[in-house]
Specification:
heterodimer; A: mainly beta; globular; B: mainly beta; six-stranded mixed sheet; 12 strands
Amino acid sequence: EPEVTQTPSHQVTQMGQEVILRCVPISNHLYFYWYRQILGQKVEFLVSFYNNEISEKSEIFDDQFSVERPDGSNFTLKIRSTKLEDSAMYFCASSVSSGKETQYFGPGTRLLVL
Amino acid sequence: GDSVTQMEGPVTLSEEAFLTINCTYTATGYPSLFWYVQYPGEGLQLLLKATKADDKGSNKGFEATYRKETTSFHLEKGSVQVSDSAVYFCALLSGGTSYGKLTFGQGTILTVHP
């Protein structure tokens, strides 16, 4: 069964450093998403992406964040200058379309900013 | 804005007990409703969904009915197993112009003892 994959599974970085989290969505899916879950808190929407453009973003997704689909398979989330409060589990998801379609999630990348 | 409220956890049950995890929501329009499950060390997996009022989603013995009049989507299982121990998330997907932004509840930790 096709699945969403994410790399790395864990990343430790120093405050102020740039990190890139990678995701490979399910191959026939057209919509891609990033969510994050700070330890002990709710899963929060960050951004949705379709047709090489951001479709919607939350207030969390400020200028420090960017997303890209650099080739036909990868979908990346970049944090330019990490802060302590960026420490969280980051989930990538994909869906065939938007609206009522099910989103399928990857296993997550646990980011720790020191 | 949209919101999802789940019953406080953690929930601890003995094997074969009946499970209910309450979920209520606030949303504009006609959202789709989902239950996701997160097993220890893994990502979010879709458990079941319902896309319109009075629909019942079911999977692996779990079921939930979309109740528009009470804005609820409670998760139930008649006889839980140790392997059901996980975190359960209720979520909604707004219709309309939202490009697939899932709104999650805070999650309910379920522990099932033999």
